[in-house]
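input
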Amino acid sequence: MRQRRMIHAFCVTSLCLFLIVFLYSNGGEPNVHVNKDRRVNVPCGEACDVVDSHFREEPTAFHAYIEKHFDCKALMLRLKDERPADAWPPPREPPPEVKDEMTMQGLMPAILKNATYYASNNAKSVKTDIITEKNIQKMQSEASKRMLEGSYTKSVTNTVSRCLERYDSAIKGRNGFVIGTERPWVEALLLNVGAQHLTTVEYSDLVSSHPSITTRTPRRLAEDYLENPREMFDFGVSYSSIEHSGLGRYGDAINPSGDLETMAQAWCLTKPGGLFFLNVPFDHGKDYIAWNAHRVYGNARLKHLTANWNVLAWMKSPYNNHDVWMLQKMASVVPVFP
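output
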């Protein structure tokens, strides 16, 4: 009997030690940043596959074009069931269990510097009443005079404005969406070009009193789509947002393919032939993660980020290599609906 008690005590002690080591395997912090069960059991599919040999590449004037099979229902189910991180602050380095996937097996290394580590829970800090008629009209007026600062500088705002004006026929009288907004300067530019209606997608519960702007959280947008699966928008815009997806900087759960999923979901929401204006940090030939601030894209990941999109043009930005890519949804690639 005594021997059995000793064996039982040893097993319990061993189990406790194992749990302690497991929970604190990430630099002394509980290893709960990756929400293993935060989604329904639906795979991301080819949208998150970055193995080049799995796809046929076509050379272009910019970077290789890759065609993938996007299961739009699955991608929207994943978006609908996305949850914030289980722990705060975010980890100071990629969690070991997802590091290989996060860094593309070393092709996109994570650079660890104190200067690039952020713990700013944006979902709680963003003002929710920024989209008012008065505010938007003021920004529209400043933009028409090339005097709008936006969220960066006047030169950045004017660069984006010129991009939109160049493709005004794809915007005038049409409905579009904007991914990520701390200040609705992009919305003001789009309305100046003649957009009919805009949907701003942001994790914060933004409130819009502007008749031409609707707000949606990603979860609510996914619910809208799943209730009536369809390509909802004529065009889309994202400026300095997608490169942050899945890095935990803004209270989101760690997701190695967060940026790829977001772009695939944007593709699902855009009508065939529709345009998407994408801004992410770009470094010719060099991919890396400035942990946990943002990703910087080179040829290795950019071609997967823009899978199924045809690159129409590229415009250099005056802000820290945040170049603007004008993309068009390939009408020949048929989305998968439920």
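quick obs: The longest strand covers residues 270-281.
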